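Exercise 7.
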Amino acid sequence: MKDLKSIESASLKKEVPKFNVGDTVVIMVKIPEGPDKTRLHPFEGLVIAKKGNGLRESFTVRKVSYGEGIERVFPLHSPTIQSIEVIRSGKVKRAKLYYLRGKVGKHATKIESKKEK
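Solution. The predicted structure, written as tokens, is:
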């Protein structure tokens, strides 16, 4: 069991920013465009769920594009994620924001921001 944990800890990313459910983030994702070429594509949205721990940790990001809701699940320590940047911190009272799936327009994206002290 200790061997498994040591292998897991060796493959974890070191520079992962702290973010929570309700935060707006931009994820730069590597997309392969050929056998030897990749490009970076930004995915900006609201974090609606986090689950797991260690190497198996993942989070769900939701954005509304052209009136259609798009959700994407990212493994936190995936090699396809170049960087994660927190744009805005949100103040929420729930661990999962699945109720935003039924909201439209500003109601789907407006989350109170945390007050800085």
